[in-house]
Amino acid sequence: MENESFYERFRCSLIMPLSLFWSVRHALNDLNYYRAKVGVEPSYTFLGGNNILFLADNFFGFETPFAVPPVHQDIGPILPDIYPDLSPSLFEFLESHPRTMYFTLGTQAYTTPKNYIILLQSFIELINQNILDGIIWSTVKTDINELPSFITILSSNISIPTSNILNNLYSNIYVTNFAPQFALLSHKNLKIYLSHGGASSCHESMYTATPMLMFPLTNDQEGNTEKLVNTGMALKISKFNLNVNDIIVKVKRILTEKSFKESAKRMQILAKVNSKRKYRGADLIEVVLNSVKYRGNMNDNGEWEVDNNVLLNDLITPDTRMGFIKGKYLDVLGTAFLIIIILVGSLGYGIWKFIRFVGKLVKSEVSLKSKKE
């Protein structure tokens, strides 16, 4: 919100949270049902509240810094210790194509057939102009049957069968339903990652210092894109105005301007250091579970009942127990404000009285002088 208008800040601060709560109210009720089954108090926010431990798969540097209470712990990026290796065919493709771009929209996102055509046209142009020499496309949920039978090469106005690309008959484009993403991003010849901007994809790209071309489609992807663009390791293309020339220009910039790779390496340091905090997250869960033995209560049915205000007392800040007015020091600040007003008012009143007194003296002297004359 740092650079947004008043309207946008108002909408995001008040209207959007209410809209979000309304849309997820059934999921919250389901979550509270399971909380009640294990003796945990209900909560009506996914952010946990003041007395519920909330573990976030994120880290400052990628996430915009903001003040958080101790019950809110950032433990990301959470990355597996082991990843699948490259298949022999993918390894061979990467080894023989030193300027490769990887494209995937993850396991949930997808775009329109028109946008897929524009992307494919861009890939071919990037290869024909010798900007890239390889493209790896992990289709995942893409319905390739929706694509037209032919793709037009814009620079030559020649059409080629789409099936040639999809069946890997176009030697510079490798199409697969699934690809071991982390292994791809770790390879020295993978230069750019064209991504929808999902959190896991962003974390892996930062961890491997791979510059990104962002293509956000839904949910948190727009926000993730804005954050990565602000880090200096990414550029954005729009699903509403996808353009071949725009893609080519931005790919060129990412490949030729050193700042993108340098920013990616800076983010790599942050991602690698913070990735160790997943173990702290596991430790925090274990601390809470074991604390139940000493701070929980057994009800008449022999079931554990948990008082989160007691259970998480070590992480609950005093201001949350003091109430809104005392906790925010509004009573102290209000009193200080009144004292200042009284002092300023008294001083102003004194000055006004002094000025009136001097004015009367001057007027009296003038009057006396005129009578003598």
TrEMBL record:
The keyword Aminoacyl-tRNA synthetase does not apply. It comes from the Eukaryota. Coiled coil: none annotated. The keyword Transferase applies. SUPFAM superfamilies: UDP-Glycosyltransferase/glycogen phosphorylase (SSF53756). Keywords: Glycosyltransferase, Membrane, Transferase, Transmembrane, Transmembrane helix. Signal peptide: none annotated. InterPro entries: UDP-glycosyltransferase, UDP_glucos_trans. PANTHER family: EG:EG0003.4 PROTEIN-RELATED (PTHR48043), FI06409P-RELATED (PTHR48043:SF145). The chain crosses the membrane at residues 329-352. One of its GO terms (molecular function) is UDP-glycosyltransferase activity. This is Glycosyltransferase Family 1 protein.
